[in-house]
Amino acid sequence: MAKRENYISWDDFFMGVALLAGKRSKDPGTQVGACIVNEDNRIVSVGYNGMPMGCSDDLFPWEREGEYLETKYPYVCHAELNAILNAASPNMKNCKIYVALFPCNECTKALIQSGIRKVYYLSDKYAETDQIIAAKRMMDAAGVKYIQLEPEQESILLSFDKDSV
Hints:
This protein is an alpha/beta fold.
């Protein structure tokens, strides 16, 4: 019997893990996940956008607009930062991160400081904002490569049917 040939690529796998992690987010508007991977293609950490530990997501706002303190922005921890903070080891030198949305400038600072050298992303829908322009300037200056992933798969279906395993 020959090996199966329709398995997913590493890039699609890791982006799939990031997208699945994003499904944990309680944010009604944006669910972003991140997956950090080392040079041996081993997952170092995952994260998603959400409230910091100890801050009930029932007590803080999820609004996108309004008075700053009545929006989610001063409170939500982004997926990339959560993935960095969730890592079992602080050593992420030469790691890569897979994230659904291009990282903001604040997350970019943490990515650079942690030693991550490649960023794979799906969407760059905020490319024209100051935060993303600043993020790209910092990545360019620090030699961090950013690559918009063109997945080989259009979608991946997961089934929890025990008989399909």
